[in-house]
């Protein structure tokens, strides 16, 4: 499943190329609770079709109603709309806790600018899109720094990035569950496994499957700040070399499946044989996932995906949710219970 922003922009371009009038709506400010973050976009066609969202649904319904009552004209300048100013209005539009949301509406965005923007995104580039608030004129600039939406002077600036990418080492059952979840969360997924017996049974569509040596694949993949690398084979010959290459990149997440003992052994191998240190291995995650008591491949995939999304979204999870720490705590409790039981037997 493609990144939602790119999906919205593609559909908007499709409408415009087919002589359909359309609006691009962007969340520019929120106060209190808000269902969608600043920078979220949606497109509305003159036939009532919608792609993307700016709230939980009620605001979309009102925007569609206004679109029906006031047909789009190419001469219309951009405008700001605010919802949830009063508690009654916030309740009416489904905004939680009295939240308020402000939107920026563009009428019939320029086709050439949309084509250029989507072309840059398809090439994996990060693009700063500046819109003149009075005229609606769009300027595009390639950038290397992700940024939050801002209003600067007479321009509204929203930065669009390429899809987040996930590189999975290993094509087993756990990888299929994780790949499926990653696709639904807007990641472009590549699976690497040189073992024919695993690749031959891969069943998840829309995933790029490669069979080269994992370390070579990581080098070719060129992981960046929108990339995560997850090793799931349990085979050091495949996992370790891929992880070593990934640690030299800007990947926002690098991790491997395995027990606490196996992950400790992996780190020690890297220290003993590849001149790493505890400091240089600080980025390496393992055992990966958050502790939810998962035992089946599907539940373990949920655990891993949750941790990856937390890191992507800059959420600091409590250390007690880390698999190793949680299991160590459980072990202490189990040992204490066992000691209490043995003590009772001796009384």
Automatic annotation (TrEMBL):
XdhC- CoxI domain location is 16-66
Give the domain of life. Bacteria
Ranges for domain XdhC Rossmann come to: 166-308
Gene3D superfamilies linked to this entry: NAD(P)-binding Rossmann-like Domain (3.40.50.720)
One Pfam family linked to the record? XdhC_C
List, alphabetically, the PANTHER family matched.
ALDEHYDE OXIDOREDUCTASE MOLYBDENUM COFACTOR ASSEMBLY PROTEIN, MOLYBDENUM COFACTOR INSERTION CHAPERONE PAOD
This chain belongs to the protein called Xanthine dehydrogenase accessory factor
Q: Which organism is it from?
A: Polynucleobacter kasalickyi
What's the source species' lineage?
A: Bacteria, Pseudomonadati, Pseudomonadota, Betaproteobacteria, Burkholderiales
């Amino acid at each position: 499943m493609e990144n939602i922003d790119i999906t919205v922009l593609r559909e908007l371009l499709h409408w415009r190329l087919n002589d359909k009038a359309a609006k691009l709506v962007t969340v520019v400010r929120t106060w209190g609770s808000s269902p969608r973050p600043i920078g979220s976009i949606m497109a509305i066609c003159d036939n009532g079709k919608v792609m993307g969202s700016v709230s939980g649904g009620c605001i979309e319904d009102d925007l569609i109603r206004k679109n029906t009552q006031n047909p789009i004209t190419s001469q219309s300048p951009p405008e700001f709309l605010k919802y949830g100013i009063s508690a009654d209005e916030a309740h009416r539009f489904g905004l939680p806790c009295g939240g308020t949301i402000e939107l920026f509406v563009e009428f019939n965005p320029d086709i050439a600018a949309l084509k250029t923007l989507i072309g840059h995104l398809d090439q994996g580039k990060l693009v700063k899109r500046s819109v003149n608030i009075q005229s609606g004129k769009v300027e595009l600039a390639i950038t290397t720094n992700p940024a939050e939406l801002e209003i600067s002077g007479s321009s509204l600036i929203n930065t669009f990035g390429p899809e987040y990418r996930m590189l999975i080492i290993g094509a087993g059952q756990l990888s299929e569950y994780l790949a499926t979840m990653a696709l639904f969360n807007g990641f472009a997924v590549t699976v690497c496994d040189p073992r024919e017996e695993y690749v031959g049974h891969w069943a998840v569509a829309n995933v790029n499957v490669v069979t080269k040596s994992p370390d070579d694949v990581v080098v070719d993949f060129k992981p960046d700040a929108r990339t995560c690398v997850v090793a799931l084979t349990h085979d050091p010959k495949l996992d370790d070399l891929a992880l070593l290459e990934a640690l030299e990149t800007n990947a926002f997440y690098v991790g491997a499946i395995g027990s606490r003992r196996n992950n400790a052994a992996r780190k020690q191998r890297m220290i003993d044989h590849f001149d790493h240190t505890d400091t240089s291995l600080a980025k390496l995650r393992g055992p990966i996932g958050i502790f939810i008591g998962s035992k089946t491949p599907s539940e373990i995939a949920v655990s891993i995906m949750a941790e990856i999304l937390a890191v992507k979204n800059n959420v600091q999870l409590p250390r007690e949710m880390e698999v190793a720490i949680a299991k160590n705590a459980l072990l202490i409790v189990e040992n204490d219970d066992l000691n209490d039981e043995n003590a009772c037997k001796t009384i």
